[in-house]
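Incident log, structure service

09:12 report received: a user says their structure output differs between two submissions of the same chain.
09:20 pulled the input from the user's history:
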Amino acid sequence: MARLRPLRRRKVVDVLKSNGFEEVRSGKHATFKKKIGDRMLTTWVPHHSEVTVFVIQYIIKQTEKDRSEFE
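09:34 re-ran on a clean worker, output below:
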């Protein structure tokens, strides 16, 4: 398993959208949601040019996605 590195914001947004997440709000952060059955998965992406590893790990946890999608 490769080590996570900071990613461009556009790459993180593309991964989320390709997995069915929709942008529902944009303020200091963009909020993304996806409904799975009766559950709603929610995460956010800051409006910075680069997303830190800490935030990427949080997004992986919140979206239940495999970390390999963010490498």
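09:41 both user submissions now match this output. Likely a transient worker issue. Closing.
09:42 reviewer note: Residues 8-66 form a domain with the Metal Transport, Frataxin; Chain A fold (CATH 3.30.920.30). The two ends are 9 Å apart (CA to CA).
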